[in-house]
Amino acid sequence: MISKYTVSGMTCGNCVNHVTEEVSEVECVANVTVTLEDGSMLVESAERIPFDAIIEAVREAGSYSVVEA
């Protein structure tokens, strides 16, 4: 299953790395792809990840916000 999100507040490659690292640690996440240019984030998982878990992980990464795309 692939879920699509938009992350705002990222300004550089380090931001992308922080978001990727934190979201990758969410249970059941198999792969995360974050693109700085458009703020897109694709999360691949075997089952649906609760949006609250994604929100929490993005907040842990820094001053970013996330919405479902």
Name a few traits of the molecule.
globular; alpha+beta; 69 residues; 2 helices; 33% strand; 4-stranded antiparallel beta sheet
Notes on the structure:
The protein is of the alpha+beta class and 69 residues long. It is 33% helix and 33% strand. A four-stranded antiparallel β-sheet has the order 2-3-1-4, covered by helices on one side. A hairpin with a 5-residue loop joins strand 2 and strand 3 (40-45). The longest helix has 12 residues, at 13-24. It starts with a strand and ends with a strand. The model has no long low-confidence stretch (mean pLDDT 97).
What secondary-structure arrangement, pairings included, does this model have?
Blueprint: E1 2-8, H1 13-24, E2 29-34, E3 40-45, H2 51-61, E4 65-68
Antiparallel strand pairs: 1-3, 1-4, 2-3
Helix fraction?
A: 25-40%
Number of continuous helical runs: 2
Share of residues in strands: 25-35%
- What is the string of SSEs from the N terminus onward? EHEEHE
Radius of gyration: 10 Å
Shape, per Cα inertia axes: globular
Identify low-pLDDT runs: none
Number of strands: 4
State the separation between the terminal residues, measured CA to CA: 15 Å
Structural class: alpha+beta
Rounded mean pLDDT is 97
Q: Main sheet: which strands, in order across? A: 2-3-1-4
Question: Could you describe the largest sheet, including whether it forms a barrel?
Answer: 4 strands, antiparallel
